[in-house]
């Protein structure tokens, strides 16, 4: 289906602009995925992104995901509440710039005051990488509070653009990422040999 999408690009040029939101409880933490694991990034991309129509990586095979997570510039962090994963952050460090490339909550955790905290952790962690600029983008397909969350944490808008995008229909098989699961089956078969 064709849909008009407005993308808003935001940046933070100084750590001093950062306005943190505390965790909603003592049992909340964020940990780095120390061993790059493609199925983890695939899981979060599909399950966090599905309600917001993230489709850019739906056609990827296992090899594409391996190539992504093995890049030195990419790091992944997972938010946990009471030991259960609730969301993730994927950074892409580009020299003196860090992009919060993907960020979000699993659907069942939306509305539990975790989004502001996870974004705060994303910003804190991004600045710990030593950049001069932290940036992120959101669009009109995202959660209705996403843009306000970025602004409340201290980001400033630096660009907006509206384009018509071709997004898979809700019943399109691509949402089940068949290329990934077909290539994963081949990988698992090779383990049994």
What does this structure look like?
The structure is a single chain. The chain has 193 residues and is an alpha+beta fold. It has a single domain (2-192), classed as Aminopeptidase (3-Layer(aba) Sandwich), CATH 3.40.630. Helix content is 29%, strand content 32%. The protein is built from five helices and seven strands. The protein has helices at 38-49, 62-69, 115-128, 146-152, 178-192, and strands spanning 2-12, 28-32, 74-81, 84-94, 97-105, 133-139, 156-166. It has a seven-stranded mixed beta sheet with strand order 2-3-4-5-6-1-7, sandwiched between helices. α1 (38-49) crosses α2. The relative contact order is 0.25. The mean pLDDT is 95.
Short description:
With 193 residues, this protein is α+β, with helices and mostly antiparallel strands. The chain is built from 5 helices and 7 strands. It has one domain (2-192): 3-Layer(aba) Sandwich (Aminopeptidase).
Helix/strand layout:
Blueprint: E1 2-12, E2 28-32, H1 38-49, H2 62-69, E3 74-81, E4 84-94, E5 97-105, H3 115-128, E6 133-139, H4 146-152, E7 156-166, H5 178-192
Parallel strand pairs: 5-6
Antiparallel strand pairs: 1-6, 1-7, 2-3, 3-4, 4-5
Helix pairs in contact: 1-2
In terms of per-residue confidence, which ranges show pLDDT below 50 for 5 or more consecutive residues? none
What's the total helix number?
A: 5
Give the strand content.
25-35%
The main β sheet shows up as:
7 strands, mixed
User: What characteristic shape results from the CA principal axes?
Assistant: globular
So, the CATH homologous superfamily? Answer: Gcn5-related N-acetyltransferase (GNAT)
CATH fold-type name:
Aminopeptidase
Percentage of residues in helical conformation: 25-40%
